[in-house]
Amino acid sequence: MPTRRLALATSVVTALLGPVGCIDEVAVPAAEDPIEAAIGQPKRVVLRSLRFEVDDFEQAVNLEQMRKLPRKVLDDLWLLDFDLTESVTVVLDELRALPPAEADALAPAAQNLRRLLNMNPDNVDLEGTQLEELIALSASVGVPPARALAALMQIGVTDDAIPPKVVSETFLDELLGSHPAAQSRQGAVDADHPDGLWPIAARSLPITLGDIVYAFESLPERFGPASLDPDDPNALVHPGFVLAASGITEDAFTMYVRVNLNALPYKGVDLTTSYVASVNSTASQIRDVFDFSNPDWIRVEGLSKNLTISEMTVRVLEDDAFVPGGDAREPLPTGNSPAWGLPPWLFERLIAEMARRRTVEGIGPHCDQYKLATDVVAFEACVDDTGWTEMTTFTDVGNPPPPAYLWDMLSEVAQVRLHDGGLAEGDADVEFTLRDIVIPLDQAAIVKQIKVNLERNPEALIGITEQLNDNADGDADFYYFKPSAGDSGDYLFFVTADDLRKDADGLPARPYEYERPGFFADPELTDKRSSKADIDGDTSHEKVRVAPGDVLYLEDDDRRRYKIAVLDKPSANNLALEVTRTR
Amino acid sequence: MRLLSLRALVPACALFALAVPGSARASGLDAPIVTSGQSHPTARDAAAVYWNPANLGYLKKGEVLAGVGLIVGDIRYDRERTGAYQTPDTLQFNAPIDPSYIDGMKTGPSGQVKANPIAPSGNFFLAYPVVKDRLTLGLGIYVPFAAALKFPKTGDQRWQAQQAFIATSQIHLGAGVRINDYVALGAGVAYVLGFAELSKMQDFAGVQEFADGLNTLGQKNSFGPAAPTEVRELDVLSRPFSLKRAIAHGVTFNVGVTVNPTKRLNIALTYFHSTAMRYRGKFAVDLNDPFFTQDLAAQGLQFKPLVRGDATLEYTLPKRITLGVGYDIGERWRVDGFVQYVRYSELDAFRVTATSPDLAQPELGIGDTLAVNLPRMWKDSIWVEASGRFRATERLLLSATLGYQSPAAPNKTIDTASPDGQRIIGALGGVLDVSPRISLLADARFQGIAPREVRGSDYDLGNGTYRLFIAAIAGHLRARF
Known about the structure:
Helices cover 26% and strands 24% of the residues of chain A. Chain A is of the alpha+beta class. Chain B has four helices and 19 strands. At the A-B interface, helix 1 and strand 2 of A face strand 3, strand 4, strand 5, strand 6 and strand 7 of B.
């Protein structure tokens, strides 16, 4: 108050001694609420073509900012295919080595898998399987059955019947590989990928920016149940295999993108109200936005230490029926086991495949002969180069198992043993959880991969770049464009679907419902004056070069029609138009 | 962001600087008449509280001196651009810019602009001997400066000044002590009240904070106070700005001594101290352009269409020293004069602070308070006047004056807010003694500069030709009691 009184007093004194002045107030006009243009009432608008060319502008996008971006934008930005083989193998190794006390606490399905992983010739019980006869045969020659089985598999008696690596690779090839989401992803349309579908690397999890930002929470959805052919209601449905997933992405994760672009929007007109609207100019520049010759055009920080899948539970379902092994060589190369006709995600098919790989990759053609004390060969077990296994007795030591592919014999053993303890068929689902797995990442390699991916498909960054440069305003029907160089003409561009303002979810804020996009010479819109001729590399917009005195007609997305008259130019980079609704 | 760039403040700063007695002498917009034309450093009247308080000591009677005046001016400026300018409706921000963006028409002379300020003025002085022939007290209330400028809003000077108004009053108390007939001493203290308003087109290209903001975005640019002409005066960055209701309070003092070697010869020496001034007002800037309000919001640039806030302007007026001499040639003739040396070189810059929460642009590193130093680099100046006074009759005295002021504003910083030059002063005056106690005083005073052609203006801001002519008339009533 003293200050006010002093000011008042001094003002009075000043007023007495000299006129208090005086100068005009700085004021701005009140913002007008756009109202619908009335028919026949022209309105003058001035459009500005102003370029604010930012060069090598590094935009840092941290996690917090990314979470403000529409989810679709993030999920559409594929970063890399991450090979899960090593990660899954490590988990299976750990599961196998789990102490019994801890293993007892596992879910039944996890215990089933642990049992499978721990099978070896020494602990496997062949009773109830086709190899049961091997028990008697072995006894007759004084050889433990485990040794005979180990010899057949060309491993030691305590070696893994099916090593974790084989299990993991089979899971990833068959279970993951058969899922639609692991086969292809959306990418750039080019000559090699005319449909825009790009294959995903084998045994790999396609990782998007959304996975990192949202800590892999969408994995169960993406890798949940999915039809193999969405267009066919009768198509097989992959049951999915990720039950739950979560991740850890530390706040340090930040992506830096360097851009070169005109950061200002194009100025256009919403014909409905004659409002001067802004059209985001990013999409039209996207091919030139990134300087791929600059090695730092994109960089990522906080990735190598923080990309962690804290939990991903994988489940494999068992068929409700026992699936016997085959008993014939044909059809080659797998034989006639019904397992090969099962979908690749079912346990029986997977176990058959594991056994087949174990045979093909680890067991060569050989014969094992077992002799009596008299040095007479009592029986012989031979595996040929196709895995076909025949056991032959030469004395009265018992009946040999019927010939079969070795994988059929092994998969039968695995199936039978998984049901020990009274487990019914169909209840031996297999499950394992990847927990707190810090995926060792080579940051440089991954960043390089990200660069390669995005350089190949910069359009993938349109969404995020538009969001970072979100300057659209209103709903323009057309906008003013001046070529950046060489052509000093003035052009009007009719908007395309790509120009529509985006909502908070990154989706167009309105449908593109123009029946007759373009500019015409007559009110009936029969004589089109615009074309998609190449201007500054753009061939997608209907566009027309204009000059003072031109009169054009056009229609908006509500089927209203307008006349626009090009007025004298206020300045070189400003265009004045008179817009009149005609109907 | 420097809301008030160097050029933004020139009008106010220059005018305010001249608002205090003495400092006004070096400006083209100073009041030609602070007191009656019969008052000067060796004059013995009530206005001595301002000119030389020592002379109060020689007053034998109380005296009231009150007057009114009218100041009119004619200020013209023919801008002549010597730099290369970008097409105004583009926005290339890093020099050297592509030659295709250079506006070939924007060079050389442009249309003349002029302002014709009219401002009334007034003053009141009172002197009263409290100890006869020994001690006299004095009071002065006067307006050492009152001026108004109104240039065309769209003229080529608009980045320098569009409108300005300045009025400064002083309330001055002084005392003079007569030691003897040969020597008197005096001193005074003055309260200084300043009021200022101004408007101009603020060129954001010259704003350091704007340059810094772009640098924050990693965009090398040529903006800032040293911006070359290629990036100046762009449409989108030229924003209307005003400083309104700016009031300053200051205190200063003066001392003087008068020596009378003979009865006819008077010598005066005075010193007027510097004055710290701090104006507090309100600023407003029109940022109602999508560039500032909308289009770059994602990059952190989003102002309200109209930003208002508090603004301060600080500077220190320079000290000055005056030597006056008067000599009575006979009963009817007297000549007097003075030379004043002003340490304007002390005024090197104006310091401005603008504060508003609406200024803050955190993502660009711009806070809500902006400070700026505005270099002026003025020069010390000299003011010389000589007068002849002739008592035509017993009741009528006539006077004529010639003078000269050297400019304070150098070519580097001159502009239309402080038109300045080699100033020639002329004045005529008269005193009619209506009665032994009552006198009427009339003055007409003129000053002008020869057309000043400037080519060395920093960044081509003020190049061109300046013309100035100011006339003032005043009438006073003097009563002795």
